[in-house]
Specification:
Blueprint lengths: L1 H28 L6 E7 L3 H12 L2 H4 L2 E7 L3 H10 L4 E4 L4 H5 L4 E16 L18 E4 L4 H13 L7 E4 L2 H10 L4 E2 L5 H8 L4 E17 L1 H6 L1 H18 L5 H12 L3 H5 L6 E2 L2 H10 L1 H16 L14 H9 L4
Parallel strand pairs: 1-2, 1-3, 5-6, 5-7
Antiparallel strand pairs: 3-8, 4-7, 4-8, 4-9
Helix pairs in contact: 2-10, 2-11, 7-8, 10-15, 13-15
Length: 339
């Protein structure tokens, strides 16, 4: 009799076990994701802020348990230096700083945008009136920002004109000083990016901004240090999911004004003057990236970009894309987002 009672109790315990385990699993799944605070570097332009501000404003980062603090920088190399110093976790970079990724200083975990044209701003003293007479830059004073998209734009302009850096008086400076130099007439031309190019055009009545086509592929991306990527895969995944949701929304032309208003507020600028920056590039949506990963287009863009740096001498030899671009992480993050 005692044995029957024991077996009955044991059977009841076994039958109850799955229910208790299910309840425990449900309780665990409902547990809140640990909140992580991230210091994120940006540059004061639309290209840098269009998606990250959308993700903040729409609550996408909050959904992922991420608290974002934004820090402004003038250029990509400065951002990478700050990451190496430990004050910044993640950063947006333009084209020029990608050579630092190829050379092993940083890892790309999300693509942002692409454009295939460059621009140079010239004053009357440059004697340049169109892209057809860029050769008149010979002997002129030209300002640029080393290591950034400014330098690659200048190189492209000189190449198009059959010139090299040795043919001009090149002045290396940060973008803020470039604005002052152009306004004062201390230099004859410059290559920079928004909002600095807009500031120059607004304050130099006779300046011309010339757009020239090149064989270049100018990518913009989100990066971190290689060690950070190795140790914080889950954080990058959560950040990327939030970012891609924002990109899916703000990449649509109907939503440009919304994203521009966020950008203008962040940088204390006029909305109308900021709207012109929406034509600076092709803004990737989550669908664009998903398709680009599937058909190899995205890898091709990064490969073409790397070849540009090899041709210019900034990168010694070809580096496997997988060494510095986290395609697998992109695919995983995008797979969690509804098409």
């Amino acid at each position: 009799m005692k044995m029957k009672k024991f077996l009955a109790l044991a059977l009841a315990a076994v039958m109850a076990l799955p229910a208790s385990m299910t309840a425990f699993a449900e309780e665990s799944s409902d547990a809140e994701v640990e909140t992580v605070q991230l210091n994120v570097a940006y540059m004061p332009n639309y290209a840098s802020l269009w998606s990250v501000l959308t993700a903040i404003d729409q609550g996408y980062f909050e959904e992922e348990g991420l608290e974002i603090t934004l820090w402004e920088f003038a250029d990509g190399p400065s951002e990478i230096a700050a990451m190496e110093g430990g004050s910044i976790d993640l950063a947006y970079i333009g084209h020029g700083a990608h050579k630092l990724c190829i050379n092993g200083q940083a890892t790309i975990f999300a693509a942002s945008s692409v454009h295939s044209t460059d621009r140079i701003i010239v004053l009357p003293s440059s004697e340049v009136t169109s892209v057809d007479d860029l050769s008149n830059l010979a002997g002129k004073k030209v300002a640029y920002n080393a290591g950034s998209s400014s330098e690659t734009a200048l190189t492209g302009a000189l190449t198009a004109a059959g010139l090299t850096m040795d043919d001009i008086e090149a002045y290396e400076m940060d973008a803020t000083n470039m604005v002052a130099a152009m306004i004062s007439g201390s230099v004859d031309a410059c290559t920079c990016w928004n909002p600095y190019s807009n500031q120059i055009m607004e304050n130099c009545e006779d300046a011309l901004e010339l757009e020239f086509a090149t064989d270049s592929v100018n990518m913009s991306s989100w990066i971190c240090l290689p060690d950070y990527a190795d140790e914080n895969y889950d954080i990058l995944l959560r950040f990327s999911r939030a970012l891609y949701k924002a990109m899916q929304y703000s990449s649509q032309e109907d939503n440009y004004e919304y994203a521009v208003e966020l950008y203008a507020t962040q940088c204390a600028r006029d909305v109308d003057s900021c709207m012109v920056e929406t034509s600076d590039a092709t803004w990737f949506s989550a669908d664009d990236l998903r398709e680009g990963l599937e058909d190899g287009t995205l890898a091709d863009l990064y490969q073409q970009q790397q070849q540009m740096f090899i041709d210019s001498g900034d990168v010694e030899s070809e580096v496997p894309l997988e060494d510095y671009v986290l395609f697998d992480l992109m695919e995983e993050a995008l797979s969690d987002i509804e098409e």
